[in-house]
Predict the structure.
Amino acid sequence: MSVAPVIEADGLTKFYGRNRGIEDLSFRLEPGEVFGFLGPNGAGKSTTIRTMLDLIRPTRGRIKVFGLDTRVDGAAVHARLGYVPGEFGLYERLTGREYLDAFASFRGGGGAARIDELADRLTIDLHRRIHELSHGNKQKLGLIQAFMHEPDLLVLDEPTQGLDPLVQQSFFGLIDEARARGASVFLSSHVLPEVERVCDRVAIIREGHLVSVSDIDDLKAAALRRLELRFDRPVAPAVFDSLASVVAVEAHGDALLLTIHGPVDEVIKEAARHTVVSVASHEPSLEEIFLHIYRDGAQA
Amino acid sequence: MNRGVMARTVGELRRPAIGWSIAVVGVSLLYTAVYPSIRSSADTLQAYIDKLPEAVKSVIGAEYTTPAGYLRSELFSSLGLILFLIFAISAGSRAIAAEEERRTLDLVLSTPVRRRTLIADKALAIVGVTFVLAAMLFLATFAAGPAFDLSMPAARLVGACAMLALVAIAFGAIALAVATATGRRVLGNAIAGGAAAVAMVVNALAAQVPALRPIRPLSPFRWYLEPDPLTHAVDPANLAVLVGVALVAFVVAAVAFERRDLSA
């Protein structure tokens, strides 16, 4: 690709004393891309992000944002960036509006005009003092300060924590808008459906190492899915076992528990030949995807 | 300088500044108001003090027969000084470390605000507020003095208040350096506060304990109090030493902050 990447990590390594934070991470975030950074808690997601923001310094390797070294050109990089940390404190004595106004002025006024609109969409009362707010409402303030100046890059570390489902929808709407105006998003999460919902590509990180970087569609296709089909009478497992996408079948009375790799289409068509009482689909957990990727040794 | 950071820092210091102003003015008025009764018994008191061992006398530094001596021993080298030190040290310790401990720092530094701008603006705000407190002390003492037989030349009082502010700022800068370098407010308070206590004792005892004399120049209080700013014009060399200590400590703080990994 000839366009310069928005983020470029090259052998990025961070040790805390002798403890490994992250080791030898290399990845690129292309302009306009929504990039998921998926991994269990403690895998090194926040370490990567805080290195990106020059809050901590890499032990080895480097990370560039907008082609610049944040250590040297921090102001230029940060002017075009919005950040929601995984955990953050707010100035508790201020009201939400005072807080957001302060952040607008840190940015030389950027974003002040959008505060009301965003507060409306995320449903937060800006007149209340921050120490009176719930965790979810504080999270909303974090989101507003990151989005209000319409940055070219959003760096979001577990941004939906504490948000109720309705607000999560509004949040996804904000991501879609950012994407529509050409912004790039780096979204860390340990929740797969969230990443699936918004990301184009996803990197999986585990114990400080990058396990894979893949298109979200490939990852979904690679993932094992569990399907529980309950019929009005017992059905022989063999008819499903012979299907290409079925990895395993277990029979439990009237029900069959299928492990599926790939499209479920032929399974559904086969099932339709019987009387189906209920269908329960189980989305694979992150751990299951990890296991699957490790077992195949693929996509690394 | 970032206007947003400055506004935010001043906003943060406003409440403490009001509280400390009240304390400083209150203490000044209290000491000024009791001066007539102290003075009427000053001869008796002085006779008593004269009988004390030299070492004790030098620690108290007591000399009650003149307004300058009284203000020096009761205000500028004791309670007033301690109030200024507590204000500056706790403000210095808080400036960056409290933001780090409360996890508000990551967000500020994710904006175009740079670490050096943040710490410089915060330091500047603390210096400003300390001088406001010094101005309050001057106004209260200067305005109330004549009513209580405690008239002071304005120039001497201005000089003493300014030097008081500077010695407090020097220790505030040390607190800023320690707390910012470690990310821990309590260490800033403990080390700068401890250093102030030791420096105060060393300076006071050095007059009587020859062994302490060689290290007396290490005590910033030596440069604050000798010659007495209440009776002499401010010595430019003394002023330079106090400003120098503050600047060196500030540079240490800024460099340490620039180089550190910030805690999450």
Remarks:
- Chain B has a mean pLDDT of 89.
- Chain B has ten helices and no strands.
- The radius of gyration of chain B is 20 Å.
- The first helix of chain B runs from residue 3 to 40.
